[in-house]
Amino acid sequence: MSRLLLHGGTIVSADSETHADIAIEDGVIKDIGTYIEDYDEEVDITGKLLLPGLIDCHVHFREPGLEHKGTMQTESAAALMGGVTTVCEMPNTIPPTCTISALADKVRRAEALLENPNPNPNPIDIRFFFGITQDLHLAALLELLNGTSQELTHLRARCCGVKLYLDHSTGDQKVRDDVLEDVFRVCGQHHFPVVVHAEDESTNRVAAAQNTRTNVAVHSLLRPAESEAIAIERAITLAQKHSTPLHIAHLSTEQGVELVRNAKKCRPFDCAQGDTFSITCEVAPHHLIFTTDDYERLGTLIKVNPPIRSAKHRFALWQGILDGTVDCIATDHAPHTLDEKNNPEPLRSPSGIPGVATMLPLLLTIAAGQWPNPAEPNATCPPFSVRDIVRLCFANPNRIFHLGKHDIEKGVSTPIVVVDPAKESAIHASDIPSLCGWTPYEGWRVKGAVQKII
Ligand code: NCD
Ligand code: ZN
Questions:
Q1: Which of 7, 48, 207, 249 is such that its CA lies 20 to 30 A from the CA of 261?
Q2: Half-sphere exposure (CA, 13 Å, Cβ side) for 43?
């Protein structure tokens, strides 16, 4: 059995940076310290940062049914390139993950990927959200949550929560109004996380009815900020009533941040059974980096739901990150082909942005004090550190979705991402194994890169 020594690196967790050597034997961290003498092979990683394999708790990997946009294999390769070793995958595939058999099929596919690791030498852990749009799906969820068979126990362990769309997005998965509260009730009883895509259908419908324009920037008016606020309020009310662990996906507005901030202050007596109520949220890199000004250069490439907002909203999202209101950064990695994106009618172009490979380099660049968006050369970076990256992209999603991952610590077997914080490079889609073959960050200069995963 050979013993590998990682020498000279800095171990980063959500709350510390420790300069120490690591001895790994048989995939297990056997020792962490300053003078480890007992080893067979030494790898010099002086000046490098060691991060736990990151968790992206919001991706769309498109398999099955949409393999022309991406497959579990291609999108996993993109994730690993970006230091992401665990992903939580959304249900809007074909068929959607709304039945036990659809979940079982995805779990089998993810396991097959691990059995045949080439060309991904590092394993990826794919967990799945269960989608619910109607009562049949809720019945299937109950079967999953209550099942005692070996098969159901196995599937339950791969399922990280329920995903609810409060308005249609890609895949037309809006939950029916008559089943919504029952989902919150059941998930409250089982302490099972509910992730909400928070946009309000009737607000969006009214905005669409008033619109006569066709340019892509109108997308941000068709799904207005109030729509997110109304949907978040609705979800919070239900979660408080039923003590449901609620997670708001891809928060994009100032009002949204404020609603989550206030809900987090809710004391037990404000809620029905508030002692078990928990509300968390995520933001996506594209909402932290782009504003509506970027439509001019990037057009439909940044058409996404919820839409890109103004600088005022982006500022509020960063405030939410700095004061701890925002729990996670998650990519909402949603690849579409360039042909689809280049629809001659921009408003018919599919919404969604790929991002699982580029999240870490972009965040490392911001942590290094360099604002990555080349359209804003004079922008200053918010105070942000690599520890924040580990908190937002590892520790918090790990806790919220009960993923059972470990920090880099003695006695555990865990993927270690070796990051070179000084390496400068440019992002090119041609280097990213994602099937869609494009990125809205094409040509952007970044500082900090994944060197390897051990
Ligand atoms: C997602 C997609 O393409 O699957 N698109 C998006 O704009 N975010 C769907 C979704 O989750 O809304
Ligand atoms: Zn999504």
A1: 207
A2: 17
Q: How many CB atoms lie within 10 A of CB 90?
A: 28
- Catalytic-role residue among 294, 332, 388, 420: 332
Q: Has residue 268 got a pLDDT over 80?
A: no
Nearest Cα residue to 382 out of 327, 328, 318, 430: 318
Could you tell me the pTM of the whole model?
Answer: 0.97
What is the torsional sign of CA 361, 451, 78, 91? negative
Express each pLDDT in 52-103 by its tens digit. Answer: 999 999 999 999 999 999 999 999 999 999 999 999 999 999 999 999 999 9
Shortest-distance ligand to the CA of residue 334: 1
CA 170 to ligand 1 centroid distance, Å: 5
State the amino acid at position 426 in one-letter form. Answer: A
Please count the residues of the chain.
Answer: 454
CA 257/CA 198 separation, integer angstroms: 12
* Spatial CB neighbours of 400, under 8 Å, sequence gap ≥ 6: 57, 193, 245, 247, 280, 327, 328
Q: How confident is the model at residue 117 (pLDDT cuts 50, 70, 90)?
A: low
User: With 0-12 CB in 10 A as exposed, 13-18 as middle and 19+ as buried, what is 264?
Assistant: middle
The closest ligand to the CA of 69 turns out to be 1
Domains of the chain: 53-404+422-445 (3.20.20.140)
Question: In 20-52, which positions are buried (b, 16+ CB within 10 angstroms) versus exposed (e)?
Answer: bbbbbeeeebbbbeeebeebeeebebeebbbbb
CA dist 167 and 183 (Å) reads 16
Residue 37 carries which side chain, given as an amino acid letter? E
Looking at residues 104-129, what average pLDDT do you find? 87
Regarding beta strands 416-426 and 445-453, do their DSSP bridges make them parallel or antiparallel, or are they unpaired?
Answer: antiparallel
Q: How far is the CA of 169 from the centre of ligand 1 (A)?
A: 6
Going by alpha carbons, the residue nearest to atom 6 of ligand 1 is: 352
In the numeric block, the tokens 């019945």 are attached to 139
Assess whether the C-beta atom of 305 lies below 6 angstroms from ligand 1: yes
CA–CA distances in Å: residue 446 to residues 146, 379, 443 = 47, 15, 9
User: Across residues 158-163, what is the average pLDDT?
Assistant: 98
Q: What is the structure's pLDDT at 170? A: 83
DSSP strand pairing (17-19 vs 10-12): antiparallel
Is the distance from CB of 126 to CB of 110 less than 8 angstroms? yes
Cα angle for residues 443, 320, 220 (degrees, 5° grid): 60
DSSP structure class, residue 391? I
